[in-house]
Amino acid sequence: MWKLRAILISFPAIVFATIVMGSISLACSVWDRTGVSQHKVARLWSRILLILGFVECSSFGLEKLDPQRSYVLVANHASYMDTPAIMGTVPLEFRFFAKKGLFSIPFLGWHLRHAGHLQVVRDDPRASLKSMAEGAKLIRERGVSVLLFPEGGRSERQIRSFKEGAAYMAIKAGVPVVPIGLVGTRGALPMHSALVRGGRVELHVGDPIETSAMTLHDRGRLTRELQERVAAMIGETVAAETVAGNPE
C-alpha cells in the first residue's frame, strides 16, 4: 500500500514542491544575499516534504537551544530525510554541509549555492580542512549555526565512527557543539530508494557541549564524546571503525 501511495502521490508531489520552492528560493536571492530568506523558504520546504512523504516528526529537547547563540549541530546520517527533519524542526538560523554532487542538481543545487550552504569534498583532506575553516569563519562573522553529519555519509544499518570536522569547527569558532539523534528516518526513506515510505521520526536534541576552554588538541576526545552521545540517543552502538583524522 505504501509503495502505491509513494509512486502516485509522494514522489510526483515532492518533485513538484522541489521545483516550486527551489524557484522561490532562487528568486529570493535576487534581493537577499545573506541567505536568511532562503532559510525561511527551506524551513517551509522541509515541512512540506515531510507532509507529502507522510512522515510524522516528533522532537525532544529543543528547549536546550538558545536562539540567541550559535552552535555546531552534529547528527547521525541514515537517510536523505534527515535534513528535512532537522531543517523543519530546529528553530535556529543555520547552514549545513552537503556533498559536492548535490550542488549540481537543478533547483536543489541552486538553493544550496544561493542560500550559502557549504560543500564538503570527501576525497580531498586539504579541501575538507578548508571547508571546516570556512564554516568556523561563517559562525564567527555571521552569528549563524552550522549543521554537520560527521559520519561522512549515510549509514545503511548502523551508526559509523565520526570524523573530526565538527569538533574542529566548533573549537575553532569557540561555540558549543550539540549532538542530535535521529530515529526512524532510515525506515522513512531507505538508502538506494527514491520512494518515501513515511512513518514516525523522532529528533532528540542533547545537551550542548561548551568548547570555549578547549584547544584543537581536544578534538579527538570531543569527537568520541559526540558519537557516544548520539549513539546513546538513537539506541545504536558505533560500528567498529577507527575515528578518522580527516576533518571531513
Explain what you see:
This protein has 248 residues and is α/β, with parallel strands linked by helices. The protein has a single domain (2-234), classed as Glycerol-3-phosphate (1)-acyltransferase. It contains eight helices and seven strands. It has helices at residues 2-28, 36-52, 82-87, 108-114, 125-142, 165-173, 185-188, 219-234, and strands at residues 55-60, 72-75, 94-99, 118-120, 145-148, 177-183, 199-205. A seven-stranded mixed β-sheet has the order 1-7-6-2-5-3-4, with helices on both faces. Helix 1 (2-28) packs antiparallel against helix 2 (36-52). It starts with a helix and ends in a 14-residue tail after the last helix. The mean pLDDT is 88.
CATH topology-level name: Glycerol-3-phosphate (1)-acyltransferase
Distance between the termini: 39 Å
Shape: globular
Helical coverage, percent range: 40-55%
What's the CATH H-level superfamily name?
A: Glycerol-3-phosphate (1)-acyltransferase
Count of alpha and pi helical runs? 8
Structural class of the secondary structure composition?
alpha/beta
How much of the polypeptide forms β-strand, as a percent range? Answer: 5-15%
Order of helices and strands: HHEEHEHEHEHEHEH
- Tell me which CATH architecture applies here: 3-Layer(aba) Sandwich
CATH class descriptor:
Alpha Beta
Instruction: Give the integer mean of the pLDDT values.
Output: 88
Report the radius of gyration as a whole number of Å: 17 Å
Strand order within the widest beta sheet:
1-7-6-2-5-3-4
